[in-house]
Amino acid sequence: MIIEFDPLMTWLIVLGALVVLVAVFFLGRRTGAQRALSRVRQYAHPANLSDGEVDDSARYRAALIVNPTKTDVRRLASTAEAICRFEGWNPPLVIETTVDDSGEGATVRALDEGVDVVIAAGGDGTIRAVASALAGTSTPMGIVPLGTGNLLARNIDLVLDKTEWALRIALWGRNREIDVGTAKIAEDGDTHIFTVMTGLGFDAAVMADTSDELKSRLGWLAYVEAGSRKLAGKPSQVKVTFDDDYRISARVRSVLGGNCGRLQGGIQLLPQAVIDDGMLDVLIVSPKNLGQWLGVLASIAGRRVSRGLHTNTRKCQKVVIEAGEELDVQLDGDPLGQSSYLAMEVMPSALTVRVPTVEQRKQIRAEAWPV
Ligand SMILES: [Mg+2]
């Protein structure tokens, strides 16, 4: 039997088939989208899973303090906004640092606004400025590491090159209390906060002599370049007083007070330093010539700094260094000028930082976040 279709019937069949194909295509896409959504929900925080209307004032809010010389602020702000929206937070308060305010004033403003976390996006200098305003408060600090050294981030095991993860850790990470150090370069002078290490002498002279331009081109190698030019300097006579009691007098190149001691490339400058033990680790470096510098470098490489060649360390809560001449001083890598006096003290558990939870660590390792 031969079935004859009239042209109208043929067109209707073709049209029907097209409708079915399009429907199958879109249903398939919806299923794909649902699959992606379920993956996203699997890694999301429970707080953003409620579908109902949430009062904005009940949502958390973050402040993002950004150093505009280290990144494209608009791009970082829009990434932060997207992540905050997705995680059920209010849009972040974004403030750029300036030459006059490297982050401390911005953080005070953010605290006045009542934010739940202040995220420092920049190098160790920006982090130090934000920490200066947060120390002694209960507001936690998140970190998006964008600097050359990123030493605090290294010492608390943050992810260094994943901005999205750094932001998520800032929002939903675990609170960890760490010590901070205070430093004064005059007995009645201002008190400065540091989170990693402060030093007088060689290390500070190197920091003061490393150009920002070379830092952005060579990274940490810029310090090596400046360091090699400073190696041949003369030692200085210093008197070091630990905890108002124990005193030593020596000819040294550098005295460092550290809250934590891990540097780039896994180098441990202060192997015994613990970031939350309520103690500072003081390192005295005293080589007299280039040959002895090799001993210092070998001691650092071999993590034998405490009983190393031409190095000595001691734990204390407070240290005062009086030098016979004006020497460079640096705080977390920022030059602070010259002084013949440096007093450092530890403020135990003064700063709360957001670090990855066990679950976040697993997800980062597995690269599980659906991007
Ligand atoms: Mg310590």
TrEMBL record:
InterPro entries membership: ATP-NAD_kinase_N, Diacylglycerol_kinase_cat_dom, Lipid_Phosphate_FormReg, NAD/diacylglycerol_kinase_sf, YegS/DAGK_C
Keywords assigned: ATP-binding, Kinase, Lipid biosynthesis, Lipid metabolism, Membrane, Nucleotide-binding, Phospholipid biosynthesis, Phospholipid metabolism, Transferase, Transmembrane, Transmembrane helix
The DAGKc domain covers 57-187
Q: Per its record, what are the GO molecular function terms?
A: kinase activity
Is the keyword ATP-binding in the record?
Answer: yes
Q: Which Pfam family is one of those matched by this entry?
A: YegS_C
* Cofactor(s) required for function per UniProt: Mg(2+)
Per the record's keyword annotation, is Thylakoid included, yes or no? no
Membrane-crossing residues?
12-29
Fetch the PANTHER family from UniProt: LIPID KINASE YEGS, SPHINGOSINE KINASE
- State the similarity comment: Belongs to the diacylglycerol/lipid kinase family.
Protein name per its UniProtKB record = Diacylglycerol kinase family lipid kinase
Q: Which organism is it from?
A: Brevibacterium spongiae
